[in-house]
Automatic annotation (TrEMBL):
NCBIfam families: HProlDhtase (NF043002)
Enzyme class per UniProt: isomerase
GO MF annotation terms: hydro-lyase activity; metal ion binding; racemase and epimerase activity
Descriptive protein name: 4-hydroxyproline betaine 2-epimerase
Alphabetical list of InterPro entries matching this protein: Cis-3-h-L-Pro_dehydratase, Enolase-like_C_sf, Enolase-like_N, Enolase_C-like, HProlDhtase, Mandelate_racemase_C, Mandelate_racemase_N_dom
Family: Belongs to the mandelate racemase/muconate lactonizing enzyme family.
EC number(s) per entry: 5.1.1.-
Cited Gene3D superfamilies: Enolase-like C-terminal domain, Enolase-like, N-terminal domain
Record keyword Ribosomal protein present: no
Length: 369
């Protein structure tokens, strides 16, 4: 099997809630996503998706996905898409870094591997653990009472895990955490995710001000060193996200005892192949995970479902149904939420069919000679 063509389509994904706000006044109203297609000589097509959370969340931006693909794609024509270690090795040889650019190709190659073997991706990634995957709902940054009302609203829809977007004014953040915890039963989990928005002293202060509450603290500060200092001075369960962007970062954090839970995003790490390396290490080390991506629609959500469903339940903290946050459906067969949970498809590959109307006028199209 050989890759004959790599193409990409730009898709706008407007938000159901009209905008999404997080730390330090950052926000997005329409996500710019890229659907990546990898076609073989025999005419089989696999799909992936990359959708950065705007240009200011991670060192990644939507136009960069497409520009990077133009750089990468010619070197992959003629390669066997089922040989995923070789595909990833080749991508690293021809383009240093830029993991998010590589993620869509890697996901599409997993889709092809599944389609060519008649197996769902989650079974190829290790097997299906349990009936379904528990989801969290991200609560966009708003005044405390509105955030608490949104937590209550999404709880009604079946979610039992919530991630509050804090990382704003520390005094207001203390109120946000208190107001949200107040509307939840003791068995629900609440995460205060500052998305790097606090300075070290404010992070310690906020955590101490809510130490009587059952709340997790996620990525309080910008650097790993600041987060580690905060972690050592507070007693809440601690999650790292933005700083864990490679296997080496995870190994260092594990050695330092820097977190209890880690947030693994597929495109932050360069695709399912690389994310699986970190996932398996976390399982071996007893670290729980939020398994997700930076954002996306139906295809990204399908990839998340396969990654999460192939992870032992004890190590699964939460995952995300990003396709329920946006107003556009790009594929049929994508996971749909039921009572705050989703599951990976039993169909071959990712188990999705991209809607034909999404595949008009490609942003790039690279063929073999
Ligand atoms: Mg996070």
């Amino acid at each position: 099997m050989q890759i004959a063509r790599i193409f990409a389509h730009q898709v706008d994904l407007p938000l159901v809630e009209s905008s999404y706000q997080w730390a330090s006044g950052k926000s997005v109203s329409v996500f710019d996503s890229t659907i990546v297609g990898v076609e073989t000589k025999c005419g089989l097509v696999g799909y992936g998706e990359v959708c950065p959370l705007g240009p200011v969340y991670l060192p990644a931006y939507a136009a960069g996905v497409r520009t990077g693909l133009r750089e990468l794609a010619p070197s992959l024509i003629g390669q066997d898409p089922r040989q995923l270690a070789k595909i990833n090795d080749r991508m690293d040889v021809v383009l240093k870094g830029h993991p998010y650019v590589k993620s869509g190709i890697d996901i599409a190659c997993w889709d092809l591997l599944g389609k060519s073997t008649n197996m769902p991706v989650c079974e190829l990634l290790g097997g299906r653990f349990g009936e379904s995957v528990r989801l969290y709902r991200a609560i966009s940054q708003l005044p405390p009472d509105q955030m608490a009302a949104n937590v209550a609203k999404y709880r009604e829809e079946g979610y039992t895990r919530f991630q509050l977007k804090v990382g704003g004014d520390p005094d207001l953040d203390i109120e946000r955490i208190r107001a949200a915890r107040e509307v939840l039963p003791a068995t629900d989990r609440l995460v205060a995710d500052a998305n790097t928005g606090w300075t070290q002293h404010e992070a310690i202060r906020v955590a101490r001000a809510v130490r009587d509450l059952d709340v997790y603290i996620e990525q309080p500060c910008a650097t790993y060193e600041e987060c580690l200092t905060v972690r050592r001075q507070i007693d809440q369960p601690f999650i790292l996200d933005e700083n864990i962007d490679s296997l080496h970062a995870l190994l260092r954090a594990k050695a330092d005892g820097a977190m209890d839970v880690v947030n693994l995003k597929i495109s932050k790490l360069g695709g399912l192949t690389r994310t699986r390396q970190l996932r398996d290490l976390c399982v071996a080390c007893g670290i729980a995970m939020t398994l997700e991506d930076s954002w996306g629609g139906d295809i990204a959500t399908a990839a998340i479902a396969h990654l999460a469903h192939s992870t032992p339940e004890a190590n699964r903290f939460t995952s995300t149904d990003f396709n329920s946050y946006v107003t556009v459906s790009t594929a049929v067969g994508a996971p749909t939420r039921e009572q705050g949970r989703m599951s990976a498809s039993h169909e071959p590959g990712l188990g999705i069919e991209v809607r034909p109307e999404m595949l008009k006028s490609p942003a790039l199209d690279i063929f073999g000679a």
